[in-house]
Design goal:
It contains 8 helices and 7 strands, in the order E-H-E-H-E-H-E-H-E-H-E-H-H-E-H. Strand 4 (83-86), helix 4 and strand 5 (133-138) form a beta-alpha-beta unit. 46% of the residues lie in helices and 12% in strands.
Length: 282
């Protein structure tokens, strides 16, 4: 069981939602917390809620230089990073054939490249510092399934899952003490469905057929039965136990099993959310 007290935790997307709760959970463990986000008021609120000396850094994770600057500031201030949460994420919706290039650039830039940048900037430093550390990247149940109307989001999250698996293998090969986990929550009541509020104007061209899919997702998020604090608690427990896959919603595993059987039996893929494509709902 890993001990976290006194260690340094870095949380991207720490201004709200699961990121905020991860920061709060780390603070309760007695960790030194660094939060990163483009939402400065949100970060300020998170820092206030931690009741600890929390460092807040404005950072757009889609920009490699900003993540590198974040890592440099963390190491300058604390000399180490022991727990990295690549958590920042956004969502887009709509049929694949009407996705826009801006949809792809915005979502992939944050959800996938944000994780790439986090790993490239922090893992070499973690290797150099030596000792135990851990990288947790937030994917989604959508990183293990193929959800209609969510191809951009699913591609980004599938990428996070396989990147985390590769990273795990690579770190074991070099006998590193850096652990890896991938967080795959289903619907959790957070602001993810309203992530467009931070979408940059230069990437504003959205899928013209997104509305019904986005409305479905927002309703599902609002009805989520597992809270962000519960997800954060599950995640820290998984880190302590050095577990790789973190599935917060039990039904996810049932849907994954169906998908695996589709692959093995070479049959047509099963829709994991049949109500999403019914005429009544869309």
């Amino acid at each position: 069981m890993k001990e976290l007290g006194g260690k340094v935790a870095v949380v991207t997307g720490g201004g709200s939602g699961i990121g905020r709760e991860l920061a709060l959970a780390c603070a309760r463990e007695g960790m030194k917390v660094v939060i990163a986000d483009i939402d400065e008021p949100g970060m300020a609120e998170t820092a206030k809620l931690t009741n600890a000396a929390t460092m807040a850094v404005r950072c757009n994770v889609s920009k490699a230089d900003e993540v590198e600057s974040l890592a440099a500031r963390v190491y300058e201030a604390h000399g180490a990073a022991h727990l990295l949460f690549n958590n920042a994420g956004v969502s887009v919706a709509g049929p694949t054939w009407t996705t826009t290039l801006h949809d792809w650039e915005w979502c992939m830039g944050i959800n996938l490249m944000g994780v790439v940048h986090g790993i490239r900037s922090f893992v070499p430093r973690m290797l150099q510092q030596g000792g135990e550390a851990h990288v947790v990247s937030t994917a989604s149940a959508a990183g293990t399934l193929s959800v209609p109307g969510s191809s951009v989001y699913c591609v980004s999250k599938h990428g996070v899952v396989t990147m985390s698996e590769c990273l795990h293998h690579e770190l074991r090969i070099v006998k590193s003490q850096i652990g890896v986990s991938v967080l795959c929550p289903a619907f959790v009541p957070t602001g993810i469905a309203d992530s467009h509020r931070n979408r940059p104007a230069e990437l504003a061209d959205t899928n013209p057929l997104a509305a019904p899919y986005a409305a479905w997702a927002k309703k599902a998020v609002e009805k989520g039965k597992i809270s962000a604090p519960e997800v954060a608690a599950m995640t820290l427990q998984a880190v302590k136990e050095d577990r790789f896959y973190i599935f917060t919603h039990p039904h996810t595993r049932d849907a994954i099993e169906v998908r695996m059987q589709d692959l093995l039996q070479q049959r047509h893929p099963t829709n994991p959310t049949p109500s999403k494509t019914s005429g009544e709902n869309l």
